[in-house]
Amino acid sequence: MPSSHGAAGKQKPPKPDCYHCSYKSSGDLNKPGFVFTADFLLLLLLLLLLLLLLPEQVERLWPGMRVLCSVGLFVGLLHLSSSLLLGAFNIKTFGDTKASNVTLMDIISTVVHRYDVILIQEVRDNDLTATQKLMEHVNKGSSQFSYIVSEPLGRTTYTERYLFLYRQASVSVVKNYTYDDGCESCGTDTFMREPFVVMFSSKSTALPTFTLIPQHTSPDSAVAETDALYDVVTDVRTRWNTNNIVLLGDFNAGCSYVSGSNWEQIRLFTDKSFHWLIPNTADTTVSNTNCPYDRIVVTADMLKGVVQGSAQVYDFMADLKLSQSLALAVSDHFPVEVKLTTSLFAA
After folding, report:
1. What pTM was estimated for this model as a whole?
2. Domain carrying residue 69
């Protein structure tokens, strides 16, 4: 279904044209394994300061510490400056009309170029002409980005595709499949738009492969569909023998669609081995509602490959200095994003 959420969300004051609101993850991001963090770099800096102030005493107590700290600081700073950025963006009704608007395509392309892998939802493009226009606009004669796209998904004549754009220099597609959620014609299927699951590989990330499970829930079935993502994870684990899994997209997981006691009905939430990186306090809407519809959820193993505190809402309206009306012409959603670590020292 199209993403028309205005009436369902909590009202908030109108957003100024360039108001920036981004949200750091409040989830548990204490990763197992050895990964350079800001706290660790601070410790290295303190040790280097001691070396500068008391070089003879430190060298006498810890021979070779100066070299060790210098190397560690260099590698740590290199790690913090390099990461792979993953995003999910519900571009409201992306089809031929929007693809023919140069102004909107310029904005969308700018957003795409922010990411190494980006999931685009609400792709209303049966013949892929809009997708081809997007790729031409994004690449502008190069082949920097490639894409993988699902079949049109839906129970009626209204269908959407899941579209992944990715930098070919950063990642490669390993394999993919569409989750079998039952018989649509029988009315026994689970999802309005069943997940199109894609495994990517990267030579630079701490985890060499990671699997993305996209989902754009039907608002009226958001609780049941978000809960059913638990079964999709189980299927992926069985099929591919991996637990490096990211679930992402417009879950409609907030405001009137998912609230209060609804959360206890969602296994993806009650099972604490899953980490919700975009919290309930986030606002992923461009309009004057205040709702955390768009989410990123990772498994415990995947958490090892996530840069601590990097999950957030990307306010393209503020970043690109757009009016609210122009931003809404692009989408009524902000992208959500998270960085995957490229540290060679991650477990």
Report:
1. 0.79
2. 38-77
